[in-house]
Amino acid sequence: GAGVSQSPSNKVTEKGKDVELRCDPISGHTALYWYRQSLGQGLEFLIYFQGNSAPDKSGLPSDRFSAERTGGSVSTLTIQRTQQEDSAVYLCASSSRGHYGYTFGSGTRLTVV
Amino acid sequence: AQKVTQAQTEISVVEKEDVTLDCVYETRDTTYYLFWYKQPPSGELVFLIRRNSFDEQNEISGRYSWNFQKSTSSFNFTITASQVVDSAVYFCALSGARTGKLIFGQGTTLQVKP
Fold first, then answer.
1. Are A42 and B97 in contact (CB < 8 Å)?
2. Do B44 and A104 touch (CB under 8 A)?
3. CB A43 to CB B33 under 8 A?
4. Which residue does chain A place closest to B103, by CA atoms?
């Protein structure tokens, strides 16, 4: 596709349930990033995939969070046993040459009730 | 450690006023990259500019201009003759040479009133 696609655009889930958020990067982009934006806050780095290298997971807030990137393309961010503080917009970005520009998706707004 | 500080949380101006958004960064890298993004009410992040650490030339793009000063670790953004459509949250961000990970500031909410 022409841009970074994220699904679903909105997700409401009950506390304690698991959720999966999907990111389809721009075709050919080797780098993929996940960020979290809580209400009124800046963007918090979560995880970064670059090609076949081991991902940089340094931003994941707890072991309830995990992410995979299959075939160097689509990525799934999984949050287990969701808590209310997980409510945020989760943004995905991809890049072909790292510092030359990142294209962000529209995000998934997660609400934990 | 890398850090980006946008000290101005909110700015309100009247249309046609000039406004400058401040950004101060910290990094130990000698090669790094600085960015500005705009986030309008629709929520999408819109790329505005990228600057590498070896290029201290200021840049102007229409009503937008950027002032990069390594001596003060600042990368400030000025909007000339602001318009209502400029109302948005603006983020300054930094990445090091070894990783593409972006470190964002907390953002500055700009409100331009007619």
1. no
2. yes
3. no
4. A45
- Asked if B96 has any chain A CB less than 8 Å from its own CB, the reply is no
Question: From start to end of B32-102, where are the E strands?
Answer: 32-39, 46-52, 59-61, 64-69, 74-79, 88-96
Residue linked to tokens 């009247």: B14
pLDDT of residue A97: 66
Instruction: Say yes or no for a CB contact (<8 Å) between B104 and A42.
Output: yes
> Does residue A98 register a pLDDT over 70?
no
Give the residue on B whose Cα is nearest the Cα of A89: B43
Distance CA B90, CA B54 (A): 24
Contacts by A69-73, CB closer than 8 A, 24 or more apart: A69/A32, A72/A30, A73/A24, A73/A25, A73/A27
Instruction: Give the pLDDT of residue B42.
Output: 85
**B105 contacts chain A (CB < 8 A):** yes
3-state secondary structure of B110: strand
B50, B91, B104 member nearest A101 (Cβ): B50
pLDDT value of position B69: 94
DSSP state of A55: P
State both tokens at B11.
């700015």
pLDDT tens-digit profile of B23-79? 999 999 999 999 999 999 888 899 899 998 988 888 888 999 999 999 999 999 999
Instruction: Tell me the CA distances in angstroms from A67 to A60, A80, A84, A112, one per residue in order.
Output: 9, 11, 20, 19
Predicted confidence band of residue A100 (pLDDT cuts 50, 70, 90): low
Tell me what pLDDT residue A78 has. Answer: 98
Averaged pLDDT score across all residues of chain B: 93
